[in-house]
UniProtKB/TrEMBL annotation:
Main subcellular location of this protein, as a coarse class: cytoplasm
GO cellular component terms given for this protein: cytoskeleton
Keyword ATP-binding: yes
Kinase as UniProt keyword: no
A molecular function GO annotation: ATP binding
Provenance organism: Salix viminalis (Common osier)
Family recorded in the similarity comment: Belongs to the actin family.
UniProt keyword list: ATP-binding, Cytoplasm, Cytoskeleton, Nucleotide-binding
Protein's name according to its UniProt entry: Actin
Alphabetized PROSITE patterns for the sequence: ACTINS_2
Amino acid sequence: MIGMEAAGIHETTYNSIMKCDVDIRKDLYGNIVLSGGSTMFPGIADRMSKEITALAPSSMKIKVVAPPERKYSVWIGGSILASLSTFQQMWIAKAEYDESGPSIVHRKCF
């Protein structure tokens, strides 16, 4: 959006990791997975690795994975999630949402 400032994907990733428990940060830095069509830009994995390395503590081993099928991985993951019987109990019908509003999400999903 023109005229709007926002953090880059590397900053958002770094900020998300820093909000997690200190005991799991090493694992998170070592398992950054790019997914979705917007990650298909040439060189994005190398750039992400370089940018995260500059932000993270120097002792951290950074690993950024960019699977070739990442363009569709979000859809594949959503498809798998939707097929799980444990997830089906969280489905919300339009009629339920119309009756209860956003609070139905908290009741069924959390």
